[in-house]
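Honest question from a wet-lab person: if I give you the sequences of every part of a complex, can you actually get the arrangement of the whole thing, not just the pieces? Trying it with mine:
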Amino acid sequence: MAASFADVTSLTTIAPRRYAARLDPEWTIAGKPNGGYLLAILGRAAVTAGEHPHVLAVSGHFLHAPVPAPADIEAEVLRAGRGASQVRVRLIQDDRGCVEALVTTADLRAAQPYWTGGLTVPDLPDPESCVRVPGRTPLGMPVPIMEQVSVRLDPAVTGFATGRPSGRGVMRGWLSLPGDETFDPLSLVYATDALPPATFEVEPTGWVPTIELTAYVRGLPEPGPVLVQQHAHVIAGQRVDETAYVWDSTGRLVAQGTQLAGIRLG
Amino acid sequence: MAASFADVTSLTTIAPRRYAARLDPEWTIAGKPNGGYLLAILGRAAVTAGEHPHVLAVSGHFLHAPVPAPADIEAEVLRAGRGASQVRVRLIQDDRGCVEALVTTADLRAAQPYWTGGLTVPDLPDPESCVRVPGRTPLGMPVPIMEQVSVRLDPAVTGFATGRPSGRGVMRGWLSLPGDETFDPLSLVYATDALPPATFEVEPTGWVPTIELTAYVRGLPEPGPVLVQQHAHVIAGQRVDETAYVWDSTGRLVAQGTQLAGIRLG
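Yes, you can. This is the full assembly:
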């Protein structure tokens, strides 16, 4: 039985604005905790320390990959405003800063869409007709996190699994949390980094470590799986950018992410 | 004669990792310094304090809008690695933090494109056939920065100027610096926030203040104007997201940005 997202991101307050986290060994890729998972933990520290209940915008810069073990988090409230707060958070392991992030928090309950444009909800088969990502990549790298969450890819983007990537740099699929837990702003932050790298559909590689990840949460999602689409645009200097859009089960765009990651190509 | 970008973003070192900046009164919108301009100044502080010459990724969270006047910047090097450094920077005015940013710096000289996909260079008329943005918006708001830089919009996205926005949330045009100065990584950071808001083509409003802005610089641009395209996707809870892509004069994608901003709609 997989532990819930709430469990694997839980914090213990050890002093004012100082928390103990436990980086779960199952939420890893080749032994390294997933970047979006780490940022969700930092987001939880920010909303615990700040004045507002939800992560609105979070930007994390990754200094050292932590190991799946206990970690400390320090938070500093930079500003507590009426409509939003800003909090700086830092994940520390063995006295070394691993991830530092800035978080703007707000109350998203009243955030109803006024206008949307330019993006259409991807038209992909029902989850049952999609292809579940297994706990090991085509190149043999273990990805235990895929046995915790369920990622079901559109069959149109799974060429990489049989050595025939499409060359397009697009990845899309359905994402469910353990026990089909309803998504919240923190698990939406994770969702922006949950799919296999879109670059697998260019050329499969090993670990694609996050350098920077920014996520915006635009509303509270309805229950059910979320639909995630990621696009890579440029591989240059052994780095790749990737955007992510996340729709809830009603087709509302509820989160957006962008990341820069390292890649062993070029 | 407009001051150069190098001038209006220059810093004086006043102590180790502490700098004095002057926020130029001309680089403003309705009296407020442009967000991308502020982030470029913080980027300069980061590369001055850090070990690497170029901004690779910068994420700024905006706490209080500063006024066009002197400001202090504090930098702290979080990590100085072989290929990249991370630096935290903070812009302070009257003892109040105005913008805090995390910056990853690197050396971009060797960053040659290996693969690009999913984005085509917008096909728009030559700068001479485009429409220069004047120093005042259709609603009468002064935008002095538009008399410093030159933004020439694709005539297809200028419906807002005559009260007929297209409804599409897309903005694109050519951007030149004062004196046609060649772009560098810092002015590319500014370029990701240089055009009028893409939301003007949804519904014109007043100031659209940046809440969070993240920019990635993907290569060193060739001389000449850059082509910028911005897309808004969702207006919800009086906030809008906007992505920006920046191509150099040879058609290479050299910078990417995403921002969340406040907007008085919805």
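Two things worth pointing out. The helical segments of chain A are 5-8, 35-49, 185-191. Chain A touches chain B through 59 residues (CB under 8 Å).
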